[in-house]
Each structure stands twice: as structure tokens, then as C-alpha cells.
Amino acid sequence: MPVSPPSPPPPRPDLVLGIDGGGTNTQCLLADLATGDVLGRGESGPSNIQSVGVPVGLAALDASIDRAFAAANLSRGTVAAACLGLAGVDRREGLDVIHGWAARGKLAGRVTVANDATLLLAAGTPDGWGLAVIAGTGSIAFVKTADGRVERCGGWGYLLGDEGSAYSIALTGLRAACRSFDGVTPPTTLIDRFVQHMNLTAAPEFIHAVYQGPWNRSAIAGLAPVVFGAAADGDATADGIVSEQATALAHTAARAVVANGLPTDGLPVALAGGVLTRSDRFRDTFLAALTAAGVTPGPVRMVTEPAAGAVVLARREVASEAR
Question: In this structure, are 281 and 134 located in the same domain?
């Protein structure tokens, strides 16, 4: 008996999808086209097709979409527009994979793929242009001009740069603890704090833990709160690290602004990543250093859900088509 092809998903022209997908996780927001109100959220694993492969990446995208519809108590349907901010699809072949997948699954009437900067600026600035700075596990600064040109500064990765990132902060803290243990630099509470947090018994065990144990790049980045905690408690070494790293990131951001001719007074700024959004001390130092470097922020907004920017862009796609 022949098998009937699956019936196409029902049309949902009243809805849009905004998706933010990367090498760690994927978030999908299902929103009302008219109001932008989020009706359902769905999360899944990594969707960077360059790092996890095409089948795994596309499966993660599908899972996040299914979960967003389920959270809204709706059956999955073909929405009016979908915007996807995805790592690993900046080349033509990657875009072809995503658009092919979307067409086969009848994802949306209009499908666009945007970069990190566009999502963050859509979510965090009044008109979608300005400065976007990310400081999470890594760090980078993006700028987008009013006429749509996107440029970047930083983002060299954990071996060559990433100043102001969680990894750089934590690694600098660990190095400072080692120097202090040797008596080369003044005493710091970072020694005992790291020993306790890493479940060790003494500082010399840092060597085995980092080089042969479980403390890889991601795990070391997770130690940044140890440095922030020590700084908040008045540890001079930790406080110096926070100030130094925030200032270095501010210089990266300022260079991106000046080199690309954006206004330096009242510039819209979007901030993302756990280092900037969760540490008041780091964020305040960064903004002060940015001003000292010649760039005075205008409206500053923290973006904790970049997928919200994708929703904004998806709604704009529909609006532009209607005009």
C-alpha cells in the first residue's frame, strides 16, 4: 500500500519566528506578528552546522521550533516570517543549507538569516544601528552604520585575543594566583578562592587540573565569577584584573566606532554576554572606559535574549513586504 506524503503544516500568517543558534544552544521565540508578544519559547542544543554537522544542527533547529509551538499550546505551522541568527552559516553553502531546510519544511513565507550584530542591535538599539559588544566566553565588538554596513573589531579567539571575556578574566586570575603563590606578586585571596572552587587542596594542583584535568576552556571561563567575587570583597589583585579587562574591551569597542565613522556622542549601545549583563562592576567600568576613550554612550540596553532581535527583524520583513 503506498504511503501518503505528510500533509503540509497549516498556515499561520499571524505568527513569526525568531531564532538564535550557536555552538552551545539554540533558542526559538514564537511571537504574534501584530504585537511582537512572545507566545512560546523553545530551547535545544547547538545548531552551528560547522561544529556539530548539518544533521545535528538542523535537528536542533527543528527541536527548538517544535518546543516553542508546544509552549504556546499550538500545532506547528507555516508562519509569516522567520529570522534566524545562526553561527556557522556565513558562507554561501551554509546559507543554502538553511534555506533548503526551511523550504522543505515550509517554515515560513519569508526566511532571512542574520548575523550576531544585526540581532543584537535590533533587540538593543532604537533603530537597529550603533555599537554591539559581546562579552561571554569570548568577546567581540560590532558596529552597524545607519546605512546598514556592519564591521567588527576583536573576536580573535581565546589564544589571540578575547580581552574582557570570561575566559580571559578567569585565566588572568589563575595566572595572578600562581604568581602570588610563588611570592613574585603581593598576596591575593584568589589563591584560596580558586582552590576551593575547583575542589583542590592546594595551589600546586592547578597544574594537573588545568593541563590534564577537567578544566578546559569552557570550564575555566566559568571561573570568572570567582574573580568578580574577590574584587567585590576588596581584593586589589582581582579588582585590578576586572578594571584592566573592562578597559581593554572598551578600547576594542571604541576602535570599532571610530574606525568606521560612527558618531562618538550619544551612540546607541547594545550589550550582551554574561560578563557584561551580570556584573555591574565590570559593566560600569567598561562604560566609563568607553567614555574615556572618546565614545560617549547614548541609550544603553542589555540584551539577554538575542532571539528577541530576530523577532523584530522577522516582523520588519513582513511590514516591508506590505508596503
Answer: yes
Same domain? 136 vs 231: yes
Q: What is the CA radius of gyration of the chain?
A: 22
Q: Is residue 171 part of a domain?
A: yes
Grid coordinates given for 88 = 556557522
Residue 82: closest CA among 54, 106, 53: 106
Is the pTM higher than 0.85? The answer reads no
51 lies in some domain: yes
Confidence of residue 6 (pLDDT cuts 50, 70, 90): low
Residue 123 near residue 270 (C-beta atoms within 8 A): yes
Quote the pLDDT of residue 3. 52
Co-location of 200 and 108 in the same domain: no
Quickly tell me which residue has 573592562 as its cell: 246
* Contact present, 183 and 197 (Cβ < 8 Å): no
Amino acid at the residue 64:
S
- Classify 298 as helix, strand or coil: strand
Taking the C-alpha atoms of residue 138 and residue 224, their distance in angstroms, rounded to an integer, is: 12
Domain that includes residue 251, residue range:
130-303
